[in-house]
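Supplementary Methods. Inverse-folding protocol.

Structures were first reduced to a discrete structure-token string of length 83. This string, shown here, constituted the complete conditioning input.
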């Protein structure tokens, strides 16, 4: 897994301004990187993706990635309350 990281959000330009496919793929990639980072992050792959997103031009993606990286890997999972 030493290949260069290619973020979907930066490498794809779609001429249709109403198309959400690029945004959806980027969100999926960001969420998968977060999950990988939180469960042990084999070979630092999740951290590298999150670090790349931390400088993303879209502020919401950048802030989310920065918050995950600053919170650390040992964040306990929240269980849904049975009610």
């Amino acid at each position: 897994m030493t290949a260069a990281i290619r973020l979907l959000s930066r490498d794809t330009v779609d001429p249709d301004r109403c198309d959400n496919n690029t945004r959806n793929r980027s969100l999926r990639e960001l969420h998968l990187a977060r999950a990988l980072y939180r469960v042990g992050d084999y070979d630092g792959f999740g951290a590298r993706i999150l670090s790349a997103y931390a400088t993303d031009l879209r502020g919401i993606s950048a802030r989310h990635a920065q918050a995950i990286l600053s919170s650390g890997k040992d964040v306990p999972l929240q269980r849904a309350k049975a009610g």
